[in-house]
Amino acid sequence: MVQPSASFLLRFDKSSYGALLGRRFECVNEFTKPLGEHFGTKFPIMGDSKIFKVTPSGNLQMVADSLSTVLGIAIGKTSWIYVLENTVGHPFPTPFSGKIIAISPSGQKSTLVSGLSFPTGMTMGPDGNLYVSNWGFGKPPGGGEVVKVTLQ
Asked: At residue 19, does pLDDT exceed 60?
């Protein structure tokens, strides 16, 4: 398990691994988009989380900043990026403060969903919709739920 703000070597496919061999990146989550693009996040709470893309040449390119407690990223077929924030605007995990942020291919951010409670994971389903674990902690066993977010 990687600790928040711990450094570790990201995993890459063979085509990009050589360019990144030995480079370290402060990151707690790694997400792979089809076509071999890799994305990583930095974890802090209170608006300092960032999303980086590892380019095919091995460089880090910031895709978004000013995010909070990023626990999930999903990439849509049209290159939109969907970001799951566990807690926004609070210095510690707080119910009903989770969000999903949509980032357009041009980099514009908008809130897609707000009011989530302790969301801990998100994925893009085969139907093109998002599925989010809500109440991933903070309730007794069996108290969590999976929420479907229909994308247009």
From this structure: no
CA distance linking residue 12 with residue 139, whole number of Å: 36
**What domains appear along the chain, each with residue ranges and CATH number?**
7-149 (2.120.10.30)
Give, for 124, the enclosing helix (H) or strand (E).
Answer: strand 121-124
Cβ proximity of 34 and 14 under 8 Å = no
Q: How far apart are CA 118 and CA 140, in angstroms?
A: 13
Question: What is the per-residue pLDDT across 104-127, written as a single tens digit (0 to 9) for each?
Answer: 999 999 999 999 999 999 999 999
> Coil, strand, or helix at residue 39?
strand
pLDDT (0 to 100) of residue 53? 79
pLDDT of 16 higher than 70: no
C-alpha to C-alpha distance for 126 and 124, rounded to whole angstroms: 7
| Residue 138 phi, psi (nearest 5) | 95, -5
> Using alpha carbons only, how large is the chain's radius of gyration in Å?
15
Per residue in 132-147, pLDDT (tens digit) is: 999 999 888 889 999 9
Structure tokens at 28: 């707690």
The amino acid occupying position 151 is L
